[in-house]
Each structure stands twice: as C-alpha cells, then as structure tokens.
Amino acid sequence: LADYFHRCAVWGIFPSFFNGDTFEDGQWKIARFFDIPALCERVRPLYKQFIPILRRMHDAGWQPITYARTAAAGVQIERYGAGPGGELLLAVFNGGQAAVVAKVTVDAQALGLAGTARAASLAIPRDLVVASAGTSLIVDVPVEAGRCEVVSLLP
Questions:
Q1: Is 148 within 8 Å of 92 (Cβ atoms)?
Q2: Phi and psi dihedrals of 123, rounded to 5?
Q3: Does residue 46 sit in helix, strand or coil?
Q4: In the prediction, which pLDDT does 126 show?
Q5: Are the beta carbons of 151 and 143 closer than 8 angstroms?
Q6: Confidence of residue 37 (pLDDT cuts 50, 70, 90)
Q7: What ranges in 2-143 are assigned the alpha helix state H?
C-alpha cells in the first residue's frame, strides 16, 4: 500500500479505496473500505503521513515548468507552488530499482529564491543539504526506490 501512496504523491493525487458491490452466494453485498476497521486501520499511518503533505501540494498548485532537474536515472520531479510569497514544493519520485541521493538543480533565480535558501523533506521530516551554484541551488534529496519525497524550498 505504501507504493500506492508514494505514486499518488508525485502527482498530488489523493489516494482512495474501494466502494463496491459484489455478488456472493446469490446476493449482492456492499463493500465499503472505510466501513471495515481491519482494512482502514492498516492504512491509517499512511493517511496520517501523506494527507497533510498532499493538502499543502494541492493548496500550492501544480506548475507545468519545474525549474528543477536531476541527472539521477529514473528520478522524476514535479513542482507545486509558484515561489515568491507562496509555498514552493518539489515532488521527487525515484522510479528506479535502488535508493539514490538525487542532486536536484533548482533555477533559484527563476523561482525567486535567494542563494541562501533552505530545503526540508516532508515525507521523512529532515533538513536537506543545499549548495549554491551561481543562479542555481543544488539540493541533495535522498529517495528510496519506488518512493516519493516532497521537498519544501524556503527562502
């Protein structure tokens, strides 16, 4: 289930589960995921971890131009938030088979970030290493295989 939540996070999609009808023993039965405590409790920690992050991503808004790139194979980046005066988030998804530390180069000038910007990961809360390189920032983002890390960039 964690894979599903991580794949939803890169696109800023809120995860959902089934409500369905099944025909068993000659009768229709209604199955609702959230009415079954054994199922619901299994994913509660993931909801607690991801829903606040997804709300922030949704509020910030997806942006079609990321102004961020990485050379790490299999790593995809999406940007949420316009930058100056608002929240700026990067969803960094590792679609590869091994953990990586993606060196994400961010066009700080285009995003209105100062050369002294800070970065913090949200899925696994921690500060990230940021280096300045001309008009860009380089952020080291550790991401496990098949996982998404959402990075908050702060001026």
A1: yes
A2: -65, -45
A3: helix
A4: 95
A5: no
A6: confident
A7: 2-11, 37-60, 108-111
- Please report how the helices 37-60 and 2-11 are oriented relative to each other, as an axis angle in degrees rounded to 10: 20
**Token duo for residue 131:** 């280096």
Q: pLDDT digit string (tens) for 5-25?
A: 999 999 999 998 777 777 778
pTM to 2 decimals? 0.88
Range 31-35 average pLDDT: 78
| Phi, psi for residue 95 in degrees, rounded to 5 | -85, 5
Q: What tokens does 60 get?
A: 């910030």
Q: How many angstroms separate the Cα of 108 from the Cα of each of 20, 83, 118, 138?
A: 47, 10, 11, 9
Q: What is the pLDDT of residues 91-115, one digit of tens each?
A: 999 999 999 999 999 999 999 887 7
Q: How far apart are the first and last CA of the chain?
A: 34
Answer whether 155's CB lies under 8 Å from 119's CB: no
